[in-house]
Amino acid sequence: MRLLNPSALLPLLVLGALAGVCAEPLVPDTLSVYDNLNSDQFTQRGELVLSDPAEYSPVGLQNPPVIKYSTVANWTTDNSMYAVLLQSHKTDAQLVLTVPRCRLNGDQAIKERFVVHAAADGGLLHVDYTAGKAANCKDAHAVPETPKFTTDVVVKRRVQGPTPELAQAPSIDLTTGKEKTPEPQKSFLVKYWYYIVPVMLLLLLGGGEEPQQEGNARR
User: Fold this and answer.
1) How many C-beta neighbours within 10 Å does residue 49 have?
2) Which PANTHER family does this chain map to (predicted)?
3) How is the chain split into domains, by residue range?
4) Element housing 153 (H / E)
5) What is the pLDDT of residues 82-105, one digit of tens each?
6) What element of type H or E holds 128?
7) Which candidate, 88, 98, 151, 96, places its Cα nearest to that of 124?
8) What is the pLDDT of residues 169-217, one digit of tens each?
9) pTM of the predicted model, to two decimals?
10) Could you give the CA distance from residue 97 to residue 86 in angstroms, rounded to a whole number?
11) DSSP structure class, residue 173
């Protein structure tokens, strides 16, 4: 039986190692949804999973988690605004979205819509939000204490043109809203040295010439 030359195994081993890296599933981020409907603090009312399609589910807890206004960066209390706070489970980053509170006046069934702009890797870039109706601002009734929210969620992932495979997509700092300074690009060897080194050692230590064929060819 003819043995394979060890050098012929190198492309197969490297491709197998890289396939293992690329096969890691992308875990979508989950956003906790808080609002300031009936208190002077943010109270959790649901969770938003940025999957395809996205999913929203109410919490339904008797004593839901709360976040005090004083702990939220870049937030100034404004009782004329209905505010929704999103908190990422992956990064703990917070994002506050607001609409005029009067849009909820006298409406027991409130429709709201989140349009989430995300990077290809699932990172949160920006969120557009709307709730209630402008016509409600002419209604003298107050906002109901326990309205029912009908939530619609759309996730739009940013699609870029061809880029180097080792390049990293830019990410947005949710605190400042500015693009983070990208890290220096890593070479192929730097990123995957722990796969390549064992393969090279195997080739160096295995060594040996290709075994000669036994017997003579028949004429």
Assistant:
1) 16
2) ER MEMBRANE PROTEIN COMPLEX SUBUNIT 10
3) 19-204
4) strand 148-157
5) 999 999 998 888 999 999 999 999
6) strand 124-131
7) 88
8) 556 665 665 666 766 666 666 777 777 888 888 888 875 555 555 555 5
9) 0.61
10) 8
11) -
Burial bucket for residue 18 (CB in 10 Å: 0-12, 13-18, 19+): middle
From edge to edge, which strands make up the β-sheet containing 109-118?
Answer: 124-131, 109-118, 148-157
| In the block, residue with structure tokens 């040295």 | 193
Q: What dihedral angle (degrees, nearest 10) is formed by the CA atoms of 199, 204, 209, 210?
A: 0
**DSSP sequence for 3-55:** PPPHHHHHHHHHHHHHHHHHTSPPPPPEEEEEE-SSSSEEEEEEEEE-SSS-E
Neighbours of 99 (CB within 10 A): 17
Cα 123 from chain centroid (whole Å): 4
